[in-house]
Amino acid sequence: MQEVLTNNSPRLHENFSQVVKSYYQLTKPRIILLLLITTSAGMWMAAKGEVDPLLLVSTITGGALASASANTINCVYDSDIDYIMERTRWRPIPSGRVKKRDALIFAIALATISFTLLTVVANLLAALLAMSGIVFYVLIYTHWLKRHSVQNIVIGGAAGAIPPLVGWAAVTGDLSWGAWLLFGIIFLWTPPHFWALAMMIRDEYKEVGVPMLPVIEGDEATARQIWIYTLLMIPATLLLVYPLHLAGAVYAGTAIFLGAIFAQKAWLLLQTPEDKIVARSLFKYSILYLMLLCAGIVVDSLPVTHNFTTAVVQNVQTLISAVVM
Length: 325
What we know:
The chain has 325 residues and is mostly helical. The chain contains 14 helices and no strands.
């Protein structure tokens, strides 16, 4: 790929803080935050609400560095289309503020620190999973799928579903059914989340030749696929309650309530697929949905929550027995 620069003079850094800001922007911090929330949820569930603070901080830090590395490499690879798309034109590389070579060195350094930290403080499995996320995101999604397949988001969504596996492995040293179900939930959540965004900026993707589903098959077909994945995702979230018995009533209530709102928004989009305001509403809610669902996992896993729900169940059973007798 050729270096992408603007026709005008590049925006040069005036001080060190601007240099730091540019490299920080390469990591796409808003995306990282959501990944770290899912990592934390995996850790809390695996540890049954009692996570070692050092392990928690180290795993979150290692995961953040790995995600930052993957996002930086993505910025390097996609700098050509980033310059064409209006919303990404002023990112550090297409604007000329950071060179591709320097960004790549930065990404390698981030990945190296991440692997070392996770290996030393957590375990090798967690470190390898974090590195696999980088490889999958860069090679499978960014290089192979994004520009060549309409299923880019579906298959590429596996990269974004790896963080809870990292969190689970950091706590237990292995991957049980619970870890893989968390992976599956996020895997199913990704298409509705990203396709809603793609419907909003379909014309930009069309301009740069990225075969997103709304570009190739239209908004109506995309809304139908969003609805299907939503119907698959919502019951999948409840499998943590039954048959796996990894979550209780607090999480179940949270998942049902949040899922009902998600389904309502997906259904509305199915009825009005051309309405970008509806697509935007679903996209924004999908972010809040995942954050609150993970919060529900954390709260439900706490010993105090377990003790409270157990006491409530016992009192209800006692009351029922008294009434029947």
